[in-house]
Amino acid sequence: MGVTTADESYEETLTTTLIDPESLDNPTPQIQKGELQDPKRCRDAWAAILFYVQLIGIGCVCGLLGVPAVQKNIGAAAAGGSSGASQQVDYTGLIYITLIAATASLIFSSISLALMTACPKLLIQLSLLISLILSLLMTIISFYYGQYIAGGFGFGILFFLLSCCYACCVWRRIPFAAANLNTGLTAVKKNGGVFVTSFLITLISFGYLMVWMVAMIGVYAKEGGLCGGGDSSNCGDGEVIQPSWGYMFLLLLALFWTQQVLQNTVHVTVAGVVSTWWFAPDEASSCCSVAIKDSFVRATTTSFGSICFGSLLVAIIQTLRSMVESARHDSNNDGCAAFLLCLVDCLLQCLQGILEYFNKFAYIYVGMYGYSYLEAGKNVMTLFHAKGWSIIITDDLVSNTLSLFCLIGGGLVGCVGLIMNSIFPAWLSGFEGAASGVSFGFAFLIGLVIMSIMLSVVDSAVNTVLVSFAEAPEEFQENHPKLSGEMRDAWRLVYPAECGF
Hints:
The longest helix has about 40 residues, at about 45-80. About 35% of the residues are buried. Helix 4 (about 90-120) runs parallel beside helix 15 (about 435-470) and helix 12 packs across helix 13 (about 375-385). The protein is mostly helical. The protein is built from 17 helices and two strands. The protein is globular, with a radius of gyration of 28 Å.
């Protein structure tokens, strides 16, 4: 009796201490949810301080060098115009076209959002088919103009075949992408004020661009300019002297950094709004909800340093790529130098893609919980790895669809510009034979920018939906049961093993 008790005790001890071999093959992932950080503590403050120093520096250069240089050029132009040698261009018509193009862009953006909400699956399918049609047209045009090797038999056919392979591979994932797109659209439509916020930030971006342009003119006037106008003796008359590489690096870095910061501020704000809608829908269900204000305040205060940190890394690579590409176009480069510059450009492009991919998801955790930049990136990647979603997050169907809508919308707005030019030819009479090109190109650019702003909000919302669904599907089921059911059905259909339910 006593021996039996000892054996049973020994077996029980083995059962509790040994690891089941099946659990090694199918380990249960430990999902650790994010936690709200101290709302009064600023993360990565050094990056925010450095960014503000950059802004002050550009402002000083603009005021001390740029404004006098612009005033000098305006005075010279006025003196030349008084002699009757030049014809002044009336820009009033261009302003009219700008206003009409902006209005048309808003209309087309609203129609696009309505169509995406009504039939997201069909639109994603159409975007794939349109890509195939465009690649086929490119091949046909190459044949038509006799570009048989470089176009028809080379890149044209290759691109068309790759497009066909891509469409066949991703076609089955369309229900998954459509469900994510529908949920993201629902979230941002419930909080329409995020579009207003993105427009305001875009206006700030345009304002900074104007200041930067004036600063660049000042640097060119101080360090470069035209030979023959100063005391330069080592160049031909009329030749442009470029400023030193150091000045160009700092100018380009300031430009790219600021644009990245403003773009990522919108991304972080949208992430905060959508996550609030996910977990606490009562706080994020109106056009001017409290979630919009709180998310924007966090993005521009306590989390601003994290935004500046990640944006600086991408901006440095963008600046280096820009300078490498400029060096590649130098006619003095021999074959070996051109080849090395091409390799460096390719390497920088890969690094930029990796960083932008990392930032896209890292900033979602910054907006959701207020983590620092590096901590947010580590936590969100750990989440995807624990869920086994490393392949799922590379799905780019929604982003491709939104990009195609931006191009189509820009083209339609460009056509509006052509129509205005045909109805009111006096508006661009000063541009003579280039009036049609100016009207289409200018309206296309405005349409592309505004459509990109509107649809970038949707793209950020869809990425936030992906992160939130990985972390908290139960809360989604509780707060939004209908949308949750649609997403679960789509995920089971496309990713039955990875979805986990």
